[in-house]
Amino acid sequence: MKSIFKGLLLFVTLALFFSLVVHAEKNEQEQGKSDEGTLVYHVKYDYDAISKFLGISLDEYDKYWKKGLSIADMAKKQGVSRHDVVGYFYDFHYKEMQKWRVEGPMTEKDYFHLVFRLSDEIDEFIDRNPNR
User: Fold this and answer.
1) Distances (CA, A) of 99 to 32, 43, 103, 121
2) Rounded to 5 degrees, what are φ and ψ at 39?
3) Tens digits of per-residue pLDDT, 45-80?
4) CB 126 within 8 A of CB 89
5) Cβ contacts of residue 12 below 8 Å, gap of 6+?
6) Of the candidates 98, 97, 103, 101, which has an alpha carbon nearest to the alpha carbon of residue 121?
7) Which residues pair with 39 in a beta bridge?
8) Confidence class of residue 3 from pLDDT cuts 50, 70 and 90?
9) What is this structure's pTM?
């Protein structure tokens, strides 16, 4: 009975080890594609451009950020409407997605799925600040 238990324990240990190795290899993927072949859309924001849009310097932006203000809070403080802030980010993402479509990694299906989720993601992004 002990030998069966030892054999089973060895088998489970080896199975877990090799499954972790396979998972690690799958994580080394092409930029823009997940291991299921779906698009991973990730952009880098230009905070200097965002601060200029808000009518403040990058130093002011950093000070507000460290105080816990979100982009939406900064905009309100500067008299910029939420509608204009959301529009700024829609325009930014539209331009980025068009680049991705021209370069090839984004299909029409990917584009449709991203646009569908974009409103919630923009709202979450402009209301977020981990310093609160």
Assistant:
1) 13, 11, 6, 19
2) -70, 135
3) 999 999 999 999 999 999 999 999 999 999 999 999
4) yes
5) none
6) 97
7) 33
8) low
9) 0.65
Say how far apart CA 28 and CA 21 lie, in whole Å: 11
Measured CA to CA, the distance from residue 28 to residue 2 in angstroms comes to: 40
Say how far apart CA 71 and CA 64 lie, in whole Å.
Answer: 9
Residue 47 has which token pair? Answer: 């905070």
Q: How confident is the model at residue 105 (pLDDT cuts 50, 70, 90)?
A: confident
Helix %, strand %, coil % for the chain, to 5? 70, 0, 30
Torsion 18-24-28-33 (CA) sign? positive
- Burial readout 55-78 (b: 16 or more C-beta within 10 A, e: otherwise): ebeeeebeebbeeebbbbbbbeee
pLDDT average, residue stretch 89-117: 82
Contact status, residue 131 vs residue 67, Cβ threshold 8 Å: yes
Q: What is the pLDDT of residue 84?
A: 97
Q: What percent of the chain has pLDDT above 90?
A: 42
